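Researcher: Next entry: Glycerol-3-phosphate dehydrogenase [NAD(+)] (Emiliania huxleyi).
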Amino acid sequence: MPEKVALIGSGNWGSAIATKIGVNASACADFDDKVYMWVFEEYVKEEDGKWVRPARGAKPPEGKTWVDEGYTPLTQVINEKHENVIYLPGIELPHNIVACPDVATCVDGATMMVFVIPHNFLAPIVPKMEGKFAKGAIGCSLIKGIEFEKEGDMKPILISDLLQAEMKKSDGAPVVDMSVLMGANVANEVAKGDFAEATIGCTKPENGLKWCKLFNTKDFAVQAVTDVAGAELCGAMKNVVALGAGFCDGLGYGGNTKAAIIRIGLKEMQKFCKVFYGDRQIKDETFLESCGVADLVTTCFGGRNRKCADIFAKNIAAGTPKAWDVIEAEELNGQKLQGERTGTAQDVMKAIKAKGVVDAFPLFSQIHKIAFEGAKPETIIDMKLEKYY
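Model: Predicted structure:
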C-alpha cells in the first residue's frame, strides 16, 4: 500500500515544502497521490489586486458572517487557485495538495505526518488527531525552536519529543517515531526552486530513507543522519550565535571577526548538544551538514536576529538604545525575532548556569551579557578563547 501523507501546517514554510511533497507524491508510486494540508482557517478577499484579511481581532457585524461580508475561506481559495495567497503568494502549489480546515480529517489514515506549525499550536491541535492516523505512522517535524524545563537543570526539550509525547498522551495511543528536517532553508527561495540542501535527523535509517524520498527533488537536496537531537538543536542554537554576528555588523567589524564568531558559535552549539543530550549519541558530522554550519551561516548573514542585533548595537553606539521588542516592532513588519524575542539566549544561559558549565561557553555568555545585562556590544570579542584549546 502506498504511504498516505498529511501535512499539518500551511504557513510560509509549510506551503513552501508542500511544493516538494506534492510533486514527489504525484510522481512516486510509494506515495498516495493526494496530500491533505491542514490550514488554520482564515477569511480573505481580494482588494485592488491584493488579498487581505479582516483586521486582527475584528468580528463580523452582528448576525452576519465573514462570508456575508464578501470574504472567502482561505482553504477554498487555496483549492481553487492552487496558491496560498496569504502566506506564499505568487507560487503555484501542486494540484494534488488539498487544503483542509479540520486536522482530524487531514490526518485520517495517514502513515506519514509532516508537522510545520508554531510549537504553541501543538497542545491545542495534536489532541484532535487522536485515533485518526494509521497504526505505525511516522512523523517529521520541520518546527525550529526549543523549549526548556522550567525548574531543575533547565534541560532543553526537543520539539520532536514534545510532539511524540502529545501524540502518546491517551491510553493505548501508539508511539510515533519522530524525525526532523532542518537546514539552511529560506522558504520563499525553496518555493521558487532556488537550489537548497536540508538534513533529515532520524532514529531509524529506513525511516530516514522514506523522508528523503518524500522531500528530495533536483533543487532540494536532502540527506539523512541518525541524529535527531543534534539536527534539531542546531535549528534553535543558531539564533543565539546570530545575535553575536549582528553585534559585529552593528559595530562595523570586518569579515575576520564575524567569521571567528561563527566558528566559535558552531563549536559552542556542538558542545551544548553534547552536554545536554550526550545520551542521544550526538554525531560530530551532523554539524557539517545543512542543519549545522550551512543554516548557521545563512542565519548569521541574513536572518532576523542578525538584523535586529545589528540595529541594537548601532543604537547603543549612537547613545539611543532601544529594547528588543521596540526594534522588533519597528524593523520586522509584523514578524517576530527567532527564539521568542531572543528568549532562547536567556534560556540557554539559565541552562548552562544550572549545569555549572558557564565557563565552557564564553561566546554564549558574552552574547547574553550584551543583550540583557548592559555590557557594551564591543565586548563581544572579550572572550577567554583559551578555553577552546
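Model: Note for the record: The domain at 5-226 is CATH 3.40.50.720 (Rossmann fold).
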